[in-house]
Every structure is written in C-alpha cells, then in structure tokens.
Amino acid sequence: MSECVKTGDWVLLYHDEKHRYTVKVEEGRVYHTTHGSVNLTEVVGKRYGETVRTNIGEDLVVSRANLLDRLGSLRRFTQVIYPKDAAYIVVSANIGPGSRVVEAGTGTGFLTAILAWYVRPSGRVYTYEIRKDFYEAALENLKEVGLLPYVEAKNKDIRKGIDESDVDAVVLDMPDPWNVAEEAYNALTHGGILAVFVPTVTQLERVIVAVRKSGFKVIEPVEVNVRKYKPVPGELRPETLGVLHTGYLLTARKL
Ligand SMILES: C[S@@+](CC[C@H](N)C(=O)[O-])C[C@H]1O[C@@H](n2cnc3c(N)ncnc32)[C@H](O)[C@@H]1O
Known about the structure:
Elements: E1 10-16, E2 19-24, E3 30-33, E4 36-39, E5 51-53, E6 59-64, H1 67-72, H2 83-92, E7 100-104, H3 110-119, E8 124-128, H4 132-144, E9 151-154, E10 167-172, H5 181-187, E11 188-198, H6 201-214, E12 217-222, E13 248-253
Parallel strand pairs: 7-8, 7-10, 8-9, 10-11
Antiparallel strand pairs: 1-2, 1-6, 3-4, 5-6, 11-13, 12-13
EC number: 2.1.1.-
Domain tRNA (adenine(58)-N(1))-methyltransferase catalytic subunit TRM61 C-terminal: 74-230
Pfam families: GCD14, TrmI-like_N
C-alpha cells in the first residue's frame, strides 16, 4: 500500500470526532467541509498521517478511508444491510477469499460491496436485482467504490432461476425469500450455506418452513444486537438513541 495519496484514492479527512469526511481524491476538485474547503490537488502526494489546511486555516488529518467510510458515502435508494448483520452473514456463511456467492436483491449494492470485499481477489459475487433502475444505480455504486471487478450483476428476478451452480453461499435480502429456497438449495455446493435477512418474524417463520421443506439442515434463526456506548470516562453508559431493530437472520446448510 502506498504511503502517499494518489489520484483515485479514498481518503478520510479528520477534524474531530464529529467532523470527518470521506472523499475520493480527484485533482482539481474543491471539497467543501464545515471547516472550510480543500483543493484536493493539495492532498495528492501527502503522506498518510499528514495534514491539509482548509481555506479558513483549519487542519484536517489525511487518513485512509476504510470500507465502511467509503460505503457511507454511496447514494442509497433502498434500505441497506447494517454492518452488524453483514458481519454475521460473512462469518456464518463462511465467506472468504475465493468464495462464489449468489445474492439477491442487489438494492443499493451495500451488501454486494461488502461480500465483494471479502471474496477478493479470486472469488465472485453474482447479484440479482429485479428493478432495472436499481440494477443500473447499484452498478454505478460498485464502480465508484472499486469493487465491480469482483461482481457479476444481473437485472433478473431470482425467482425465475439461479444461473450458477456449485456456489458456496446464497445470500437473500428481498421481500419473499421463501420463494427462492428450492432454487438456492439446487445452486449450492454440498456444504454450502444459505443466509437470509428479513425484517419481521412473520417472514422469518415462512423462511423456516420453506428451507425445511427444501431439505436444508442446521437451520439457525438469530437476531444480532449491538448497543453503542458513550466513549466518555465517568459517563460510560449506553447511548440514549440508537437503532433498536434491523431484522432477523437465518442460516441453513445443504448437508
Ligand atoms: C432491501 S433491498 C436490498 C438491499 C441490499 N441488501 C443492500 O444492502 O443494499 C431489496 C431489493 O430486492 C429487490 N428484489 C425484490 N424482489 C426481487 C427478486 N425476486 N429478484 C431480485 N431482486 C429482487 C428489490 O428491488 C430491492 O432492490
């Protein structure tokens, strides 16, 4: 990894805990923050850890943007998977470098990008999206974060069939995943894992019935809860406000 910022790099410009900015470096572009503007040409060639001064004399530390920083700057047009749920999916579906993963629906491409990040460099994410406008916008998002080379996106209703076979995992975040249980089973390799995200218990129950009927084993419905705390010594306690509910996850194996 280069020690110096290059054109096209994603950087985090850090002022303080409440003010940090993720931006893709383009020469000539002026980036506006609440602490003044930065000509991004001045960021090129900086060593990571150095500062850049805004037009009103405020210093911002130039750091590398991580995956979540980058994804946070994407245009969202659907509900997206929260990192806590994505992390559970990646680990429980045994997704790693080289994995071949089928996913639906693509939506904003947030989860697609996370899956692509973990299957790199030799794996692939085959993602299905029924809506053409979402499919096209997600392609733009994936291109923007540099993860498109690891993704094959399709503007297709996954209920009409999965084109791939012997895949390692199938990941579903769509309104009626129970209608894909059998297709998923057929597409998976022996030992492959299905991971489903649904927002309500009513949907979860329908998924359990469908995966059982399709022959899946080791059916595990879970809920992942993360509670943020105030990082203040002497005041260390849970944050007053936060996300109370995202959804339920279910994993099942083809054994
Ligand atoms: C909640 S969004 C997915 C968000 C995505 N996981 C993310 O993190 O950005 C659900 C998506 O599923 C798509 N969808 C619904 N039914 C589908 C189907 N049968 N085949 C493919 N995509 C479908 C919807 O159009 C929508 O974009």
